[in-house]
Amino acid sequence: MTTATKAQLDLIYRNTHSDYKGVFSDGVRMIMVCRGATCLVPLEELTAEEVAKRLPKSKK
């Protein structure tokens, strides 16, 4: 399970292209990630590294 906040996971989901995200039949949101091969992963199971990579970079 990730240590990301709900707000961070919501932001990742909103900023992921619709071709790379979906919802399981039980309502769990998922995105496609590459873990040696591409696979669908529930947002709550993203690693800290995957979360950091997918959060939008702030513009200064």
* pLDDT < 50 runs, ≥5 residues: none
Count of folded domains: 1
Task: Give the strand line-up of the largest sheet.
Answer: 1-2-3
**Number of beta strands:** 3
Shape summary: globular
End-to-end C-alpha gap? 31 Å
| Helical fraction | 25-40%
Radius of gyration: 11 Å
Which structural class is indicated by helix and strand composition?
Answer: alpha+beta
Mean model confidence by pLDDT: 92
User: How big a fraction of the residues is strand?
Assistant: 15-25%
Major beta sheet summary: 3 strands, antiparallel
Number of helical segments with 4 or more residues: 2
| N to C succession of SSEs | HEEEH
Walk me through this protein's architecture.
The protein has 60 residues and is α+β, with helices and mostly antiparallel strands. The protein has one domain (6-54). 27% of the residues lie in helices and 23% in strands. It is built from two helices and three strands. It has helices at residues 6-14, 48-54; strands at 21-23, 29-34, 38-42. It has a three-stranded antiparallel beta sheet with strand order 1-2-3, with no helix packed on it. Strand 2 and strand 3 form a beta hairpin. The protein is globular. The model has no long low-confidence stretch (mean pLDDT 92).
